[in-house]
What does this fold into?
Amino acid sequence: MYTPVITGTGVFTPENTISNAELVKAFNAYADKFNAENAADIDAGTLDAKPHSSEEFIFKASGIESRYVIDKEGILNPDVMHPLLEQRGDDQPSLMAEMGLDAARKALKAAGKTAADVGAVICAASNMERAYPAVAIEIQQLLGVEGFAFDMNVACSSATFGIQAAADMVKSGSISSALVVNPEICSAHLEWRDRDCHFIFGDVATATLIEREEDASGAYFEIKSTRCATDFSNNIRNNNGFLRRSRPDGVADRRDMQFMQNGRKVFKEVLPMVSAHIGQHMEDEGVQASDLKRLWLHQANKSMNDFIGKKLLGRTPEAGEQPNILQDYANTSSAGSIIAFSKYSDDLKDGDVGLICSFGAGYSVGSVIVKRHS
It folds into this structure.
Protein backbone atom coordinates (compact mmCIF):
# COMPACT_ATOMS: atom_id res chain seq x y z
CA MET A 1 0.00 0.00 0.00
CA TYR A 2 1.19 3.49 -0.87
CA THR A 3 0.39 6.86 0.73
CA PRO A 4 -1.35 9.24 -1.72
CA VAL A 5 -0.43 12.93 -1.52
CA ILE A 6 -1.42 16.16 -3.27
CA THR A 7 1.71 17.72 -4.73
CA GLY A 8 0.33 20.43 -6.98
CA THR A 9 -2.80 22.34 -7.96
CA GLY A 10 -3.63 24.68 -10.82
CA VAL A 11 -6.42 27.13 -11.62
CA PHE A 12 -7.49 28.42 -15.03
CA THR A 13 -9.41 31.70 -14.74
CA PRO A 14 -11.21 33.21 -17.77
CA GLU A 15 -10.35 36.77 -18.77
CA ASN A 16 -13.93 38.06 -18.70
CA THR A 17 -15.62 39.18 -15.49
CA ILE A 18 -19.19 40.25 -14.84
CA SER A 19 -19.89 42.40 -11.79
CA ASN A 20 -23.20 42.34 -9.98
CA ALA A 21 -23.87 45.84 -11.30
CA GLU A 22 -23.37 44.72 -14.91
CA LEU A 23 -25.49 41.64 -14.39
CA VAL A 24 -28.36 43.55 -12.77
CA LYS A 25 -28.38 46.15 -15.56
CA ALA A 26 -28.67 43.44 -18.22
CA PHE A 27 -31.26 41.42 -16.32
CA ASN A 28 -33.49 44.40 -15.62
CA ALA A 29 -33.33 45.44 -19.29
CA TYR A 30 -34.42 41.91 -20.21
CA ALA A 31 -37.21 42.00 -17.59
CA ASP A 32 -38.52 45.33 -18.92
CA LYS A 33 -38.45 43.99 -22.48
CA PHE A 34 -40.29 40.82 -21.45
CA ASN A 35 -42.92 42.74 -19.51
CA ALA A 36 -43.53 45.15 -22.39
CA GLU A 37 -43.87 42.35 -24.93
CA ASN A 38 -46.26 40.42 -22.72
CA ALA A 39 -48.19 43.34 -21.22
CA ALA A 40 -51.61 42.03 -22.29
CA ASP A 41 -51.13 38.62 -20.68
CA ILE A 42 -49.63 40.18 -17.56
CA ASP A 43 -52.58 42.59 -17.26
CA ALA A 44 -54.98 39.68 -17.77
CA GLY A 45 -53.33 37.75 -14.95
CA THR A 46 -52.34 34.79 -17.13
CA LEU A 47 -48.62 35.53 -16.96
CA ASP A 48 -46.42 36.82 -14.15
CA ALA A 49 -44.37 39.91 -14.73
CA LYS A 50 -40.60 39.60 -14.43
CA PRO A 51 -39.41 41.37 -11.26
CA HIS A 52 -36.22 43.42 -11.21
CA SER A 53 -33.02 42.17 -9.63
CA SER A 54 -30.62 44.26 -7.53
CA GLU A 55 -27.05 44.19 -6.28
CA GLU A 56 -28.32 44.14 -2.72
CA PHE A 57 -30.54 41.12 -3.40
CA ILE A 58 -27.70 39.16 -5.00
CA PHE A 59 -25.16 39.82 -2.27
CA LYS A 60 -27.61 39.11 0.55
CA ALA A 61 -28.73 35.87 -1.09
CA SER A 62 -25.28 34.55 -1.90
CA GLY A 63 -22.31 36.67 -0.89
CA ILE A 64 -21.31 36.87 -4.57
CA GLU A 65 -19.91 40.15 -5.92
CA SER A 66 -18.55 39.09 -9.31
CA ARG A 67 -17.92 36.05 -11.53
CA TYR A 68 -15.56 34.96 -14.31
CA VAL A 69 -17.12 33.75 -17.56
CA ILE A 70 -15.92 32.45 -20.91
CA ASP A 71 -18.24 34.85 -22.76
CA LYS A 72 -19.93 37.93 -21.32
CA GLU A 73 -21.28 39.53 -24.50
CA GLY A 74 -24.15 37.09 -24.90
CA ILE A 75 -24.94 36.97 -21.19
CA LEU A 76 -25.25 40.75 -20.96
CA ASN A 77 -27.29 41.11 -24.15
CA PRO A 78 -31.00 41.39 -23.16
CA ASP A 79 -31.92 39.77 -26.49
CA VAL A 80 -29.69 36.73 -25.86
CA MET A 81 -29.09 36.16 -22.11
CA HIS A 82 -26.73 33.21 -22.47
CA PRO A 83 -23.07 32.80 -23.43
CA LEU A 84 -22.21 32.65 -27.12
CA LEU A 85 -19.57 29.95 -27.34
CA GLU A 86 -17.62 29.16 -30.46
CA GLN A 87 -18.77 26.09 -32.36
CA ARG A 88 -15.48 24.25 -32.81
CA GLY A 89 -14.70 21.66 -35.43
CA ASP A 90 -13.95 18.07 -34.52
CA ASP A 91 -10.30 18.64 -35.41
CA GLN A 92 -9.98 21.47 -32.86
CA PRO A 93 -9.44 21.10 -29.10
CA SER A 94 -12.70 21.33 -27.22
CA LEU A 95 -13.23 24.30 -24.91
CA MET A 96 -13.33 22.14 -21.77
CA ALA A 97 -10.13 20.34 -22.76
CA GLU A 98 -8.41 23.66 -23.46
CA MET A 99 -9.41 24.99 -20.02
CA GLY A 100 -8.44 21.76 -18.31
CA LEU A 101 -5.10 21.67 -20.11
CA ASP A 102 -4.17 25.09 -18.73
CA ALA A 103 -5.05 24.11 -15.15
CA ALA A 104 -3.28 20.73 -15.51
CA ARG A 105 -0.06 22.33 -16.73
CA LYS A 106 -0.12 24.71 -13.76
CA ALA A 107 -0.62 21.80 -11.35
CA LEU A 108 2.31 19.92 -12.90
CA LYS A 109 4.52 23.01 -12.68
CA ALA A 110 3.60 23.52 -9.03
CA ALA A 111 4.55 19.90 -8.30
CA GLY A 112 7.78 20.08 -10.30
CA LYS A 113 6.59 17.29 -12.59
CA THR A 114 5.90 16.71 -16.29
CA ALA A 115 3.32 14.77 -18.26
CA ALA A 116 5.70 11.80 -18.24
CA ASP A 117 5.12 11.51 -14.48
CA VAL A 118 1.33 11.15 -14.81
CA GLY A 119 -0.33 7.74 -14.94
CA ALA A 120 -3.98 8.74 -15.39
CA VAL A 121 -6.26 11.70 -16.04
CA ILE A 122 -9.72 12.03 -14.51
CA CYS A 123 -11.95 14.79 -15.86
CA ALA A 124 -14.51 15.33 -13.10
CA ALA A 125 -17.09 18.06 -13.68
CA SER A 126 -20.78 18.86 -13.32
CA ASN A 127 -21.42 19.23 -17.06
CA MET A 128 -19.48 17.65 -19.91
CA GLU A 129 -19.11 19.29 -23.30
CA ARG A 130 -20.01 16.01 -25.00
CA ALA A 131 -20.91 12.45 -24.18
CA TYR A 132 -17.95 10.86 -25.95
CA PRO A 133 -15.12 10.58 -26.64
CA ALA A 134 -14.25 11.40 -23.04
CA VAL A 135 -12.95 14.91 -22.46
CA ALA A 136 -10.39 13.33 -20.12
CA ILE A 137 -8.90 11.37 -22.99
CA GLU A 138 -8.62 14.56 -25.03
CA ILE A 139 -6.82 16.28 -22.14
CA GLN A 140 -4.59 13.21 -21.84
CA GLN A 141 -3.64 13.49 -25.51
CA LEU A 142 -3.05 17.25 -25.36
CA LEU A 143 -0.79 16.79 -22.34
CA GLY A 144 1.04 13.82 -23.83
CA VAL A 145 0.21 11.50 -20.94
CA GLU A 146 0.46 7.74 -21.33
CA GLY A 147 -1.81 5.42 -19.36
CA PHE A 148 -5.56 6.02 -19.31
CA ALA A 149 -8.24 8.65 -18.73
CA PHE A 150 -11.95 8.82 -18.03
CA ASP A 151 -14.75 11.29 -17.28
CA MET A 152 -16.92 11.33 -14.18
CA ASN A 153 -19.84 13.46 -13.05
CA VAL A 154 -21.11 13.90 -9.50
CA ALA A 155 -22.22 17.50 -10.03
CA CYS A 156 -20.72 19.91 -7.48
CA SER A 157 -18.95 17.06 -5.66
CA SER A 158 -17.10 15.86 -8.75
CA ALA A 159 -13.69 17.12 -7.63
CA THR A 160 -13.68 15.41 -4.25
CA PHE A 161 -15.12 12.21 -5.71
CA GLY A 162 -12.37 12.37 -8.34
CA ILE A 163 -9.74 12.85 -5.65
CA GLN A 164 -11.03 9.80 -3.78
CA ALA A 165 -10.91 7.69 -6.97
CA ALA A 166 -7.38 8.86 -7.75
CA ALA A 167 -6.18 8.44 -4.17
CA ASP A 168 -7.57 4.91 -3.99
CA MET A 169 -5.80 3.92 -7.22
CA VAL A 170 -2.51 5.41 -6.05
CA LYS A 171 -2.89 3.76 -2.65
CA SER A 172 -3.50 0.34 -4.20
CA GLY A 173 -0.50 0.64 -6.50
CA SER A 174 -2.45 0.36 -9.76
CA ILE A 175 -1.08 3.77 -10.78
CA SER A 176 1.66 5.98 -9.37
CA SER A 177 -0.05 9.31 -10.00
CA ALA A 178 -3.17 10.96 -11.43
CA LEU A 179 -4.38 14.37 -12.49
CA VAL A 180 -7.93 15.23 -11.41
CA VAL A 181 -9.13 18.02 -13.72
CA ASN A 182 -12.32 20.03 -13.18
CA PRO A 183 -13.29 22.27 -16.12
CA GLU A 184 -16.57 23.96 -15.25
CA ILE A 185 -18.47 25.98 -17.87
CA CYS A 186 -21.39 26.67 -15.55
CA SER A 187 -22.50 29.77 -17.46
CA ALA A 188 -23.78 27.57 -20.29
CA HIS A 189 -26.29 25.83 -18.03
CA LEU A 190 -27.41 28.72 -15.89
CA GLU A 191 -30.78 30.29 -16.67
CA TRP A 192 -29.70 33.93 -16.81
CA ARG A 193 -33.34 35.04 -17.26
CA ASP A 194 -34.44 33.75 -13.85
CA ARG A 195 -34.08 36.33 -11.06
CA ASP A 196 -33.79 33.63 -8.39
CA CYS A 197 -30.67 32.08 -9.89
CA HIS A 198 -29.25 34.41 -12.56
CA PHE A 199 -26.30 35.40 -10.36
CA ILE A 200 -25.16 32.01 -9.07
CA PHE A 201 -22.54 30.56 -11.42
CA GLY A 202 -19.19 31.37 -13.02
CA ASP A 203 -16.66 29.53 -15.20
CA VAL A 204 -13.25 28.14 -14.22
CA ALA A 205 -11.07 25.03 -14.35
CA THR A 206 -8.94 23.44 -11.63
CA ALA A 207 -6.50 20.54 -11.53
CA THR A 208 -4.99 18.49 -8.70
CA LEU A 209 -1.98 16.19 -9.01
CA ILE A 210 -2.02 13.16 -6.71
CA GLU A 211 1.13 11.03 -6.35
CA ARG A 212 2.81 8.49 -4.10
CA GLU A 213 4.39 10.14 -1.08
CA GLU A 214 7.87 8.92 -1.99
CA ASP A 215 7.62 10.60 -5.40
CA ALA A 216 6.91 14.09 -4.01
CA SER A 217 9.68 16.52 -4.86
CA GLY A 218 8.62 19.36 -2.57
CA ALA A 219 6.03 20.28 0.05
CA TYR A 220 2.81 18.28 -0.17
CA PHE A 221 -0.47 17.41 1.51
CA GLU A 222 -0.88 13.83 2.64
CA ILE A 223 -4.37 12.51 1.93
CA LYS A 224 -5.17 11.03 5.32
CA SER A 225 -8.70 9.93 4.47
CA THR A 226 -11.51 10.43 1.95
CA ARG A 227 -15.23 9.84 2.21
CA CYS A 228 -18.15 10.23 -0.20
CA ALA A 229 -21.92 9.92 0.12
CA THR A 230 -24.99 10.40 -2.09
CA ASP A 231 -28.74 10.60 -1.57
CA PHE A 232 -31.06 11.12 -4.56
CA SER A 233 -32.96 14.40 -4.77
CA ASN A 234 -34.61 16.45 -7.53
CA ASN A 235 -34.14 19.75 -5.70
CA ILE A 236 -31.10 20.62 -7.85
CA ARG A 237 -31.51 19.45 -11.42
CA ASN A 238 -30.39 20.09 -15.00
CA ASN A 239 -32.21 18.22 -17.76
CA ASN A 240 -30.39 19.66 -20.75
CA GLY A 241 -26.98 18.06 -20.53
CA PHE A 242 -23.74 19.18 -22.19
CA LEU A 243 -23.49 22.68 -23.66
CA ARG A 244 -26.22 22.87 -26.30
CA ARG A 245 -28.03 25.84 -24.77
CA SER A 246 -24.93 28.00 -25.12
CA ARG A 247 -25.06 28.06 -28.93
CA PRO A 248 -27.43 30.19 -31.04
CA ASP A 249 -28.37 27.31 -33.32
CA GLY A 250 -32.09 26.89 -32.83
CA VAL A 251 -32.09 24.86 -29.63
CA ALA A 252 -35.53 24.56 -28.04
CA ASP A 253 -36.07 27.32 -25.46
CA ARG A 254 -37.40 25.45 -22.42
CA ARG A 255 -36.97 26.77 -18.89
CA ASP A 256 -37.15 23.27 -17.39
CA MET A 257 -34.09 22.17 -19.39
CA GLN A 258 -31.70 24.57 -17.62
CA PHE A 259 -30.41 24.75 -14.05
CA MET A 260 -33.28 24.36 -11.60
CA GLN A 261 -33.08 24.63 -7.83
CA ASN A 262 -35.47 24.65 -4.91
CA GLY A 263 -33.22 26.81 -2.79
CA ARG A 264 -35.13 26.59 0.48
CA LYS A 265 -35.28 22.79 0.42
CA VAL A 266 -31.62 22.56 -0.57
CA PHE A 267 -30.60 24.76 2.34
CA LYS A 268 -32.78 22.81 4.75
CA GLU A 269 -31.75 19.34 3.59
CA VAL A 270 -28.14 19.68 2.44
CA LEU A 271 -26.71 21.49 5.46
CA PRO A 272 -27.59 18.77 8.00
CA MET A 273 -26.36 16.10 5.57
CA VAL A 274 -23.00 17.81 5.01
CA SER A 275 -22.45 18.69 8.66
CA ALA A 276 -23.23 15.12 9.76
CA HIS A 277 -21.06 13.65 7.00
CA ILE A 278 -18.00 15.72 7.88
CA GLY A 279 -18.54 15.27 11.61
CA GLN A 280 -18.70 11.48 11.29
CA HIS A 281 -15.69 11.45 8.96
CA MET A 282 -13.66 13.42 11.50
CA GLU A 283 -14.80 11.25 14.40
CA ASP A 284 -13.94 8.02 12.58
CA GLU A 285 -10.45 9.37 11.80
CA GLY A 286 -9.86 10.70 15.31
CA VAL A 287 -9.75 14.33 14.14
CA GLN A 288 -11.01 16.90 16.63
CA ALA A 289 -12.35 20.33 15.71
CA SER A 290 -9.33 21.83 17.45
CA ASP A 291 -7.07 19.86 15.09
CA LEU A 292 -8.41 21.58 11.97
CA LYS A 293 -6.34 24.52 10.85
CA ARG A 294 -8.40 25.18 7.74
CA LEU A 295 -11.66 24.28 6.02
CA TRP A 296 -11.83 24.52 2.23
CA LEU A 297 -15.56 24.24 1.62
CA HIS A 298 -17.66 24.13 -1.53
CA GLN A 299 -18.22 27.69 -2.75
CA ALA A 300 -21.96 27.80 -3.34
CA ASN A 301 -23.35 30.20 -0.78
CA LYS A 302 -21.67 32.15 2.02
CA SER A 303 -24.49 31.50 4.48
CA MET A 304 -24.20 27.75 3.91
CA ASN A 305 -20.44 27.81 4.51
CA ASP A 306 -20.82 29.96 7.62
CA PHE A 307 -23.36 27.49 9.00
CA ILE A 308 -21.20 24.44 8.31
CA GLY A 309 -18.04 26.05 9.69
CA LYS A 310 -19.76 27.07 12.91
CA LYS A 311 -21.37 23.64 13.27
CA LEU A 312 -18.06 21.79 12.86
CA LEU A 313 -15.85 24.07 14.94
CA GLY A 314 -18.46 24.81 17.59
CA ARG A 315 -17.84 28.54 17.09
CA THR A 316 -17.68 31.14 14.37
CA PRO A 317 -14.60 30.45 12.22
CA GLU A 318 -11.84 33.03 12.60
CA ALA A 319 -10.45 34.94 9.65
CA GLY A 320 -8.42 32.58 7.50
CA GLU A 321 -9.81 29.36 8.97
CA GLN A 322 -12.48 29.06 6.29
CA PRO A 323 -11.45 31.04 3.20
CA ASN A 324 -14.08 32.07 0.68
CA ILE A 325 -13.45 32.79 -2.99
CA LEU A 326 -17.18 32.94 -3.73
CA GLN A 327 -17.28 36.74 -3.79
CA ASP A 328 -14.89 36.83 -6.77
CA TYR A 329 -15.63 33.58 -8.63
CA ALA A 330 -19.29 32.90 -7.74
CA ASN A 331 -20.33 29.24 -7.62
CA THR A 332 -18.00 27.26 -9.88
CA SER A 333 -19.52 23.89 -9.01
CA SER A 334 -16.91 21.18 -8.34
CA ALA A 335 -13.99 23.56 -8.79
CA GLY A 336 -14.88 25.90 -5.93
CA SER A 337 -13.32 24.05 -3.01
CA ILE A 338 -10.19 23.36 -5.09
CA ILE A 339 -9.79 27.06 -5.94
CA ALA A 340 -9.97 27.84 -2.21
CA PHE A 341 -7.47 25.06 -1.45
CA SER A 342 -5.09 26.17 -4.21
CA LYS A 343 -5.12 29.82 -3.16
CA TYR A 344 -5.14 29.36 0.61
CA SER A 345 -2.94 26.41 1.59
CA ASP A 346 0.71 27.35 1.10
CA ASP A 347 0.88 29.14 4.45
CA LEU A 348 0.05 26.03 6.49
CA LYS A 349 2.87 24.62 8.61
CA ASP A 350 4.28 21.12 8.78
CA GLY A 351 1.78 18.83 10.51
CA ASP A 352 -1.21 21.14 10.07
CA VAL A 353 -4.47 19.34 9.28
CA GLY A 354 -7.24 20.63 7.01
CA LEU A 355 -10.36 19.40 5.28
CA ILE A 356 -11.60 19.84 1.71
CA CYS A 357 -15.33 19.37 1.17
CA SER A 358 -17.70 19.78 -1.74
CA PHE A 359 -21.42 19.11 -1.90
CA GLY A 360 -24.43 19.68 -4.11
CA ALA A 361 -26.79 18.05 -6.59
CA GLY A 362 -27.39 14.38 -6.14
CA TYR A 363 -27.48 15.07 -3.26
CA SER A 364 -23.76 14.41 -2.96
CA VAL A 365 -20.99 15.22 -0.52
CA GLY A 366 -17.29 14.40 -0.59
CA SER A 367 -14.70 15.18 2.10
CA VAL A 368 -10.91 14.85 2.10
CA ILE A 369 -8.79 15.13 5.25
CA VAL A 370 -5.25 16.31 4.47
CA LYS A 371 -2.04 16.89 6.45
CA ARG A 372 0.70 19.33 5.46
CA HIS A 373 4.28 18.13 5.03
CA SER A 374 6.85 20.86 4.37
Q: What stands out?
A: The longest strand covers residues 220-230.
